[in-house]
Design brief:
There is one protein chain. This protein has 211 residues and is an alpha/beta fold. It has one domain: Metallo-beta-lactamase, Chain A. It is built from seven helices and 14 strands.
Length: 211
Amino acid sequence: MEYKQIPLGPIQTNCYLIWNENKDCLVIDPGANGEKLIKYITELALSPIAILLTHAHFDHIGAVEDVRNEYSIPVYINAKEENWLIDPKLNGSEAFRLPQPVVAKPAEYFLDENPKMKIGDFVFQVLETPGHSPGSVTIYFKEENLAFVGDALFYESVGRTDLTGGNQRTLLDSIHKKLLTLPEHTIILSGHGRKTTIEHEMDHNPYINGF
């Protein structure tokens, strides 16, 4: 399995394309710049089969409709944030006073806690990791040692908790009880910034070591 990290939009939110040897592709967090993202997909000769959302803040969902309409594929999100796709107040786009509020149609399926989820030939684990938002999830590919964590955990930092539904204690619980139980060599792919590992964050993240 291969993946590509693509920073998109005004706050450079990481979208991830994951594909297998058949070129089937999962799109994680298409946050903005739909035309640019579709161009990448075309250049890589990929065939998207689903959109997975780690959570529904506007900077992670801004290109959902572009990608969904281009490839006629379903969207997956945690049930706790199913209404956020259609509500600019909940997804934060109203507060950020964007030129246009971010609105998407409801998701077709839910990404809830699941030790073994299968979409096409992709098999992964869904970990509910709330705190940054109520429905934040981590998409964990055990065999590939990859964890797509959204905005729960960053390189030597953690996600903000001052937005709608955020809670610092809940976030730290998610990190300690879910993410830090993953193997130390697990690669952490966050919603912003560079990749890291569980081992590095256990050793160097002040938010983890300080609480």
